[in-house]
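Table S2 (text version). Query chain:
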Amino acid sequence: MRRILGAALAAGLLTAGPAFAEKPQYGGNLEIGTVYATISALSFDPADFAWKLNHDTGPYLETLFAGDLSKSLRNGGKFSFKPDAWLPTEAIRGELAESWEWTEAPLAVVIKLRHGIMWPEKAGVMASREFTADDVVFSFNRQNTSAKKFPDYYDYVTKVVARDRYTVAFEMKEYNADWDYRFGWGYYSQIIPKELVDAGINNWRNAVGTGPFQLTDYVQGNAHVYSRNPIYWDKEKIDGAEYKLPFVDRVAYRVIKDEATQHAALRSAKLDILEAIRWQAVDNLKKSAPQLKWVKWLNYSGTFLSMRVDTKPFDDIRVRRALNLAVNKQEIVKEYYGGNAELFAYPQHPDYIGYFQPLEEMPASVKELFEYNPEKARKLLAEAGYPKGFTFKTQVCSCSPDNMDLLPLIAGYLEQVGVKLEIQPMEYGAFLSAMTSLTNAPGYFMSNGHTNPTRTLHKSFTPGQAWNPSQWNDPAYNAKMDAVFHTRDEAKRQQMLKEMTVEILDKAPYIWLPVPYLYTAWWPWVKNYDGELRVGAVKPGPVYARLWIDQDLKKKLGH
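Corresponding structure-token output:
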């Protein structure tokens, strides 16, 4: 298995050191087709526990911690800042936090907050005031008492205390290895003012935050528009000089459901950046818009067909293994993806150094699941009592062009061993609700983010989690997961998670499928950028705050 970083460097798609520093320019508008360009905001309230929230509120709501972009590949560091929800410890900086330390009596992480960060004035919502420790306490307690909170998500925290105006302590009854992810930089860790809740947090017109931009317009199915926050606190150091952020006046997320329309918008410069482009479109875009700049990356979402193990026939491991053997995954890599995919990169991602174990190092029983063997598939189905196969319903989201194209191909492979799919396309809201309400069909075809090396297993294969479409529930596996969270030594956690990954692969609750490469493209007038996607859980706001538009170059290129 190639490492994406090494492959990208070898292909000349990433720079290995800092780019030539140019003097920043202020002003201009940035039009972006984000990684989630087909999906409008799901919520503006962190207490809704909607996975996409950090993407849509991240430009204006900040978190305690975030990724340190000064350590990006573009700046001579070693981090791509592309994973959907993983920040190695050395890649983390304080955002609202200035510093933090652990204490043992009581067991707590004590966080010193930055001084002088201001909430902007928002008519009808709040007067401008300073951000304080009370805001952190309020935000956490509101999350912790939400009816939509994930089971056990914060149970290790006994209380959160404001020790003074700028110091907050998260006191714990036990250590949890995902502490920083869960309340520091993860999906649901945004800090909000009480005034916003009182005014009505899910009304986008009330949106207000300490971040680089403020939400100033929202049209579902069309656009999210964020305007420059003139009192934003952070700065960017470039060539030894500090510059106030953000550089651009406005950022617009364009919601474009049709893939061809996305490409046309990029080609005509109606989009400055398109973050996720399938390989099939790359050659044509390079020919029709040769000035575009490109970066290639291995998707941070795994694609699979989940089988509900609490329903027949998927309670039988022979059936689940048979369906894996019936799908020619090598052919999918070669023919469907044109070689632009890796056979095995989920549930752990090759970028998770220390956690990822390549397929060639896996036991034979796991390797077998990635080999095409329809004869053995038929034999296993017969042994399980299905010599003539069976039929089952599979749900798929119409929001994913790749999944809509790929599922009929999977159905064709399965039909060769007598198994027929009833394919049910669904709009995103209904599709997601089916899984989170535990009413999903026996088959559920999706792409799901890796998250981080721990949560990728926890959220998908332990009971009560919203992202567990197979309804996997193994008490012994659950106990191992608990032990991982309680283990402070990262090297030990890495070994434990490797063993758990092998175990769940072998038990095959999913038809494991290849992970494709994607491309990001942008016009050369977008500066201070090399395709970075996020600095926290699906959080791109600080990336966009550091970009500027070379207006002269844009005019020179005719736009």
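Notes on Table S2: Residues 301-516 form a domain with the Dipeptide-binding Protein; domain 3 fold (CATH 3.10.105.10). The chain is about 30% helix and 25% strand.
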